[in-house]
Amino acid sequence: MRAADLDLLVGVSTPTVHPGGGRAVVAVTHPSLSADATVGQLWTIPLSGHAAPKLFTRGFRDTAPRFSPDGRLLAFLRAEPKRPPQLFVVDAAGGEPVAVTDRTLGVTEFTWSPDGRTLAFVSREPEQGRYGTVEGIDPNGEPSRRIDTLKYQANGLGYTIDRRAHVFVVAAPDVWSVPSPVPVPLPDGTTDGGAAVAEPRQLTDGPWDDGSISFSPDGKRIAFVSARHASRDVDLRSNVFSVAVEGGDARDLTGPHGSYSVVDAQFANNGVLFFTAQDVGESGRDFVGRNTALFAIDVDGDAPRRLSDPETVDFTESVITAYRDDAVLVHDRSRGALVLTEVNAAGESRRLTDDQTVVGGAGVAGDTIVVTFADARTTGDVALVDGEGLHRLTDLSAPLRAKGVLAPTELTVTGRDGYPIHGWVVAPDGEGPHPVLLNIHGGPFAAYTGALFDEAQVYAAAGYAVVMSNPRGSAGYGQQHGRVIRQRMGTVDLDDVLDFLEGAIEQVPGLDGERVGIMGGSYGGYLTAWTIAHDHRFAAAIVERGFLDPEAFVGTSDIGSFFGDEYTGTDPELMRSQSPQAVVDQVRTPTLVLHSSADLRCPLGQAERYYTALKRRGVETELVIFPGEDHELSRSGRPRHRRERFDIILDWCADHLPSRSNRR
Q1: Residue 210 in contact with residue 225, Cβ under 8 Å?
Q2: Greatest CA separation found in the chain?
Q3: How far apart are the C-alpha atoms of 64 and 12, rounded to whole Å?
Q4: Is 491 exposed, middle or buried (0-12, 13-18, 19+ CB in 10 A)?
Q5: Rounded Cα gap, residues 487 and 477, in angstroms
Q6: Are the CB atoms for 342 and 348 separated by under 8 Å?
Q7: What count of other Cβ atoms lies within 10 Å of the Cβ of residue 664?
Q8: What would the pLDDT profile of 263-309 be if each residue is shown by its tens digit?
Q9: Cis peptide before 433 (omega within 30 of 0)
Q10: pLDDT surpassing 60 at residue 403
């Protein structure tokens, strides 16, 4: 794979399975270099026979399909160029979609009522006078913001305090009625005739965000997740609430019973409410390396029951799917895989997929389970789950494989203290010797997987052996593995990435241990910067969107009010003992610093201070700033910027760590 092949990277949404069986619908998206945007449409996937998948919609970006409970309608989100996504509904047999919403800031999620007559959705409600609510007032002409909270912005969004996310309901449209005439503009700015979307009814409000919505089986209440307690500005707690569809005050279902940071909530078919949450302790902030457990509330007012062991099982990346009467499907993050797992209200669990596959969303109709997944051959495909595992229904990455995809080699290396370190190597074809790129993932409570990874493929195609490990601090290996670096960053995690690098060079043929580069983003940028201050073997380094200066992080990052406090502590000397900025004078490695101008997670100032310190000390360095991008540039940024980023990285490697196929 080359950088120019970005168009061939597919993403596949959570499937929706027709209640009558026989077919599923998914959204298939991909970055488009020509449109300089992510585009996508809905596809119908037959579940039996030999029929091929078929295009179902032709929008610019259609996502999040969901059949109505009776199977007559299909709802989805549609975004036009440079406009937010809106809710649409179409006859499940096909036809012209009908707009359900026309929200200024769009719709982020939705769900059907059990009777299929109503749709609930989440949308941000803009403060009047902002975000285009008054014609002629652009962002620079809006009133000043008077801020009295610590949490007031979010990466990829911007300010949140003046556009809170709330729950709305709206009647499902009649897609079979005769449409109204085309609207005609009138001199006073109104229109004469034309179909207008129904006015939704707002169910929640207040200075907080609501989301993760689910109807109760009787359709009378909606469960949602929110942080409404008095100390929400200084802790990470959130609770599950419910509100009547007819309106009224929301009820807190979990608040009195524990210290939760809730991830998702979903009613089972028998009315049991399942939710996933981290236990964030007495402080409400103890989030480092905390696995997410599954809980159940049998009846309103009951205390939640924990159904899974957070020491060994992690449901952080789960969107809960109702399955059977008293069970749900969740995803266990385990050793670089996401394992589809069935859990019932008694806490009995059953793993439905193997320990190699990264399972995405799951759709259910009766006993039929359809999932999206990624593995070493695909970035996204659709499969049926049966007693033997996955039965593949699509091969969406075939065009990418035709360009050349390299299989990863899985390794476990014993570290200097006897600790096992797990990871992968993606090496170029040929005998070598190949120069090596040590890649470090972000998080740090995240993980590399064995699935097809565009970054590793691009670098390997350019002649580099890519080494990727999940050192201590990563997710998927138990809580202790993730928590051990709390206020000890740059200790055993540094040892682990270096020990895995040496083990990979020793065990995988063709790796050149004398020519090695290092790179990483976010926490990976942190550990890259920390490593090159302590180990000078590297010919080149790339520090991207890094957490580089814990002291300056506070008050500038959207998570600055708690992240550094928990990971590096609050004592000034303790913080400095883990700070790449504090040891930047020890760096000698040529270092490329990459950052995005709108990154609110690791703000641009982190990169600017680090780059300036390198420059003033005479280290060969360059700072690259991508305009308009945020912390997610490499994953979901504008496609042309993503391609340019690859080109810049390979140019830096060509100058400082040339390969046979990547040199000046």
Answers
A1: yes
A2: 78
A3: 10
A4: middle
A5: 19
A6: no
A7: 6
A8: 999 999 999 999 999 999 999 999 999 999 999 999 988 999 999 99
A9: yes
A10: yes
Nearest to 633 by CA among 525, 540, 559: 525
Residues in the chain: 664
Residue in the block written with tokens 């995405």: 360
Q: In what order do the strands lie in the sheet with 251-252?
A: 210-215, 221-226, 239-244, 251-252
Residues 6+ apart with CB under 8 A from 505: 436, 511, 512, 513
Rg from Cα positions in the chain: 25
Average pLDDT score over residue span 550-562: 96
DSSP string, 600-646: SSS-HHHHHHHHHHHHHTT--EEEEEETT--TTHHHHS-HHHHHHHH
**C-beta separation of 163 from 152 below 8 A:** no
What number of other Cβ atoms are within 10 A of residue 174's Cβ? 9
Q: Distance (Å, rounded) from C-alpha 190 to C-alpha 192?
A: 7
Given the structure tokens 């997710």, which residue do they identify? 475
Preceding omega of 444 cis (within 30 degrees of 0): yes
Query: 127-162 burial, b for 16+ CB within 10 Å, e for fewer?
Result: eeebbeeeeeeeeeeeeeeeeeeebbeebeebebeb
The C-alpha torsion from 537 through 543 and 546 to 549, rounded to 10°, is 60
Q: Which of 195, 207, 319, 219 is nearest to 269 (CA)?
A: 219
Q: Amino acid identity, residue 550? A: P
- 234 near 269, Cβ under 8 Å? no
Instruction: Provide the residue type at 576 as one letter.
Output: R
Percentage above 90 pLDDT, the chain: 94
Q: Which residues pair with 413 in a beta bridge?
A: 421
Residue holding tokens 């310190």? 613
Of 88, 269, 295, the C-alpha closest to 195 is: 88
Rounded alpha-carbon distances, angstroms, from residue 527 to 331, 477, 497, 615: 28, 20, 9, 20
Closest alpha carbon to 25 in 398, 370, 377: 370
| CA–CA gap between residue 648 and residue 653 (Å, rounded) | 9
Q: Read off the amino acid at residue 569.
A: G
Which tens digits make up the pLDDT trace of 93-146?
999 999 999 999 999 999 999 999 999 999 999 999 999 999 999 999 999 999
Instruction: Tell me, rounded to whole angstroms, the distance of Cα 66 from its chain centroid.
Output: 20
Q: Inform me whether the pLDDT recorded for 405 exceeds 60.
A: yes
What are the DSSP calls for 233-300, one per residue?
Answer: TTS---EEEEEETT----EESSGGG--EEEEEEEE-TTSPEEEEEEE-TTTT---TTPPPEEEEESST
**189 pLDDT exceeds 70?**
no
Backbone angles phi, psi at 227, to 5 degrees: -115, 100
Do the beta carbons of residue 359 and residue 373 sit within 8 Å?
A: yes
* Residue 428 to residue 418: CA distance in whole angstroms: 30
**Neighbouring C-beta atoms of residue 245, cutoff 10 Å:** 19
Of 332, 284, 304, give the one whose Cα is nearest residue 447: 332
pLDDT of residue 191: 44
Continuous H helices in 287-438: 398-403
3-state helix, strand, coil in the chain (%, to 5): 15, 35, 50
Contacts 24+ apart (CB under 8 A), 222-225: 222/120, 222/167, 222/169, 223/253, 223/265, 223/266, 223/267, 223/273, 224/122, 224/167, 224/250, 224/265, 225/262, 225/263, 225/264, 225/265, 225/275
Distance CA 376, CA 373 (A): 10
